[in-house]
Amino acid sequence: MIEALGARAIQDVVQAGHFGRFAWRSLLTSLRSCASRRTYPLVWTQMHIIGVRSVPVIMITGAFVGMTLAVQAYDQLAGMGLEEHLGQLINLSVVKELGPVLAAVMLAGRVGGALTAELGTMNVTEQIDAVRSMGTDPIRFLVAPRFLACILLTPVLIIYADLMGVIGGALVSFLQFGINSRAYWDLSAYGVDFWDVGVGVVKGFFFGAAIAVISCYKGFTCREGAQGVGQACTDAFVASFISILALDFALAVVSKNVYAIFWPLKSLVG
Amino acid sequence: MDEHTDGLADARAESIIEVEHLTKRFGAKLVLDDVSLVIEKGKTTVVIGPSGCGKTVLIKHFIVLQRPSEGQVRFEGRRIDDLSERELARVRTRFGYLFQEGALFDSMTVAENIMFPIRQHYRVKSSRELEDVVKAKLAMVGLDGFQNYYPARLSGGQRKRVALARAIALNPEVILYDEPTTGLDPIRSDIISELILKLERELGITTVVVTHDMKSAYKVADRIIMLHNGKVIADGNADYIRNHPHPVVQQFINGQVSEDDLAVLRMSGSAGTAQFLPRDFEE
Asked: Inter-chain contact A134–B117, Cβ cutoff 8 Å?
């Protein structure tokens, strides 16, 4: 029992080491690839697959987040006579937290699953070995374009999700609850800083990097057979989801401390 | 000279690949057990052996797609198994590797598959020039005109021939064939064997073929190496292998099941039938 536990612990540490090395190599190779013109068409293709095709689902996700927040929060605020503050609550929640996290989770499912399935299939059919056998680094050819596309486009997709969340929340507030639009927008503008929007968008770089590295790693290391590829996709989504939540927490702590350094008295005003 | 070998001392003088005391383990499983051999330049060496005996793992070590657990791999006298992936890239461009299932990129057309290694290693200024190279490579394997097909639309034999065209795209000095005739009908198998001979004759390429197709092995081989349980048990020309006294070699080349295997089958057969017979069907 203890022996099995120890063996499992050693295996987990070894796997963590492999993942760390893969992530480090992916980061370095991606940075190096930025200087190579040959990478641009590959990145462009991945940007289309990862970014452009994700826009509709991301916009739908954002819109529903905003609309649901309006419905959920209205009763509590109206009970205190603060219904005109609904915009402030919805927009702050959307741009700072829910928009980035739910957009990233949606991307982990749509893009991460596709990346793992594609690279996993390439792995089990020896296409990744074929890339290596022809003297090409598969990290440069396969991982770097996907990594760069994810990093560049996740923040952009978060902006789309934010925008649709704001619009969805506003439409429900105006049309269903009849809130005064002037007061709604004025209080929103007062309560939501550029900093809040920026924090949400910056999270996108980290979420994009996590989704790309985890999904590519799971694809590169997936076991043979249809079951192996399926299991890798599931593992990739679960690992990406947990990473997004963990990164969200870490970035919330960091952003709060950075904010306190630059604007130490701001909390006294609000 | 090794007791299982014939002519190895001559080979050492003109070797291109040398494997010394190569051992490979996957976890607790020992796949290659202290294998030492030399591949002669300009010749065709065929590695035979039953499925799972380590043939593919052995040739993957030749271009370091697998790293040894112990031992060394040398190419033209230089140790390559300890090189970084970046350093290996240059070495690998001197090899062509035909994978068992072809390993064509299914998102690319036939032409794009063949262009891939060229684009990776040359600055291509004229796409017309590149198309001419693709045409010439496809003509060598008898598939000119298939440039715009996707791999999914090709038959198994055609896929292997396209993969061969891709493997020779960079004019390699060594070609490694992993089970080139597996899964093909006898006629298409023979076409692949003829292609291997043609490439060796026309391009003077060093060839290593992994196969368990003895007809193809006898046709193309200058030398045959037999692996069994991760060890080299026979090494020599076709006649030497045909007359080799080792019972495992004779069983393999004649396609005979051993008495021990038959006994196991008979026992498991009767036990299995009794075990899995549904109750309703019992008398």
From this structure: yes
Q: ipTM, 2 decimals?
A: 0.84
pTM for the complete prediction? 0.84
The partner residues of B74 in beta bridges, in order of sequence, read B18, B79
- Tell me the residues of chain B between 185 and 204 that have a Cβ less than 8 Å away from chain A: none
Beta carbons of B116 and A133 less than 8 Å apart: no
Query: Mean per-residue pLDDT for B171-191?
Result: 87
pLDDT of A249: 95
Domain count along chain B: 2
Residue A15 phi, psi dihedral angles, 5° rounding: -65, -40
A224 in contact with B, Cβ within 8 Å: no
Instruction: Say if residue B145 is in the same domain as residue B29.
Output: no
Q: Are residues B219 and B160 in the same domain?
A: no
Range(s) of the domain holding residue B84: 1-94+174-188+204-268
> Are B86 and B136 members of one domain?
no
A131: left (phi over 0), alpha (psi -120 to 50) or beta: alpha
Alpha-carbon distance B31 to B91, whole Å? 25
Q: Which H or E element spans position B40?
A: strand B29-40
The answer to whether A119 touches A22, Cβ cutoff 8 Å, is no
pLDDT tens-digit readout, B182-218: 877 888 788 889 888 988 888 888 999 999 888 899 9
The answer to whether residue B276 sits within a structural domain is: no
Q: How many CB atoms lie within 10 A of CB B205?
A: 20
Rounded to 5°, angle at Cα B71 from B65 and B73 = 50
Bridge partners for B39 per DSSP: B17
Q: B179: phi > 0 → left, psi -120 to 50 → alpha, else beta; which?
A: left
Chain B contact present for A135, CB below 8 A: yes
Domain end marker among B124, B146, B171? B171
Q: Are residues B90 and B214 in the same domain?
A: yes
Residues B88 and B137 in one domain: no
Q: Which residues of A touch B151 (CB under 8 A)?
A: none
Of B97, B101, B104, the CB nearest to A133: B97
On whether any CB of chain A is under 8 Å from the CB of B121, the answer is yes
CB A162, CB A94: distance < 8 Å: yes
| pLDDT at residue number B277 | 47
Residue at B54: amino acid letter: G
Residues B160 and B178 in one domain: no
What confidence tens digit (pLDDT) does each residue in A35-47 have?
888 888 899 999 9
